[in-house]
Amino acid sequence: MEEQFINLTLENIEKEHICCAISDKKHQAGVDIKKKWLQARIKEGHIFRKLNQKGKVFIEYAPLETAWVPVEGDNYIYIYCLWVSGSFKNKGYGKKLLQYCIDEAKDQKKSGICVISSNKKKPFLSDKKFMEKNDFKVVDKIGEEYELLALSFDGSNPRFKSNAKKQTIDMKELVVYYGLQCPYIPNCVKEIKTYCDANKVKINFVKIDTLEKAKNVPCVFNNWAVFYNREFKTLHLLNEGYIKKLLEK
After folding, report:
1. Element (H or E) spanning 14, and its range?
2. Residue pLDDT, tens place only, 182-240
3. What contacts 170, CB < 8 A, 6 or more positions away?
């Protein structure tokens, strides 16, 4: 029997899991925050589609105009996340989820679909090789690492906003820009703050809680971004080991 997929709606969001933090109790607060964020976004055309199983198999996307990323373009869809993990890999689920997005974009007469990726595979970003196999092409870059990939239907292309290409800020201390979309983030912020307080490390958290703030961050951003010594360092969620490594450089 063919596996079934479902979309989160205002009617079912309270009873459905949101995949990525499905089994870890320490992220439950993040799940609740994510669901509240989603409830507002669903009204804007945001889609969260998942396999109807207890697993991490889902795609999440939105109209680019209301997507909380420093990317601009006319009439595009932006993919936040496409994730298939564990025993669900190599069964064609990723392709089916992406195809659903493509079909919907075409039905809505969109100009295309875009996604932030990287030259080398990085956690929390869609895999470039998979997207290229499905005809996505690099249309913009930030430095040598981060790339904007697009599947254009009409020849137009989206682009990173100019502010995203700055990659520098005035503050020298450790600075973390974070959003409300990823359920891992609230606990991550808590753990980082605890570590920094205990080790007298100065840190500044910048909460991205509006679309305007997300569109105007000074770096590549897909829910999370870290600066140190005024320079952008990573999109990777921090833990104790990563902070130590970062501060030692």
Report:
1. none
2. 898 998 999 999 999 999 999 999 999 999 999 999 999 999 999 999 999 999 888 88
3. 230
Q: Which helix (H) or strand (E) holds 142?
A: strand 137-142
Q: How far apart are CA 103 and CA 99, in angstroms?
A: 6
C-alpha 64/C-alpha 146 separation (Å) is 18
Tokens encoding 21:
């933090």
User: DSSP letter at 237?
Assistant: P
- At residue 226, the pLDDT reads 96
Residue with tokens 């600075």: 175
Total domain count, the chain:
2
The answer to whether the Cα torsion of 193, 195, 197, 199 is positive or negative is: negative
Amino acid 176: pLDDT: 96
Query: Is 83 in a helix, a strand, or coil?
Result: strand
Question: What is the rounded CA–CA span in Å between residue 28 and residue 36?
Answer: 13
Using 50 as the pLDDT threshold, list the residues of the chain that sit under it. 1
* Together in a domain, 183 and 91: no
Give one DSSP letter per residue of 172-230, joined into a string: -SEEEEE-SS-TTHHHHHHHHHHHHHHTT--EEEEE--SHHHHHT-SS--SSEEEEETT
Q: Which residues pair with 193 in a beta bridge?
A: none
92 and 35 inside one domain: yes
Half-sphere exposure of 102 (CA within 13 A, CB side): 14
**pLDDT at 63 (0 to 100):** 98
pTM for this prediction: 0.94
Residue 76 sits in the same domain as residue 170: no
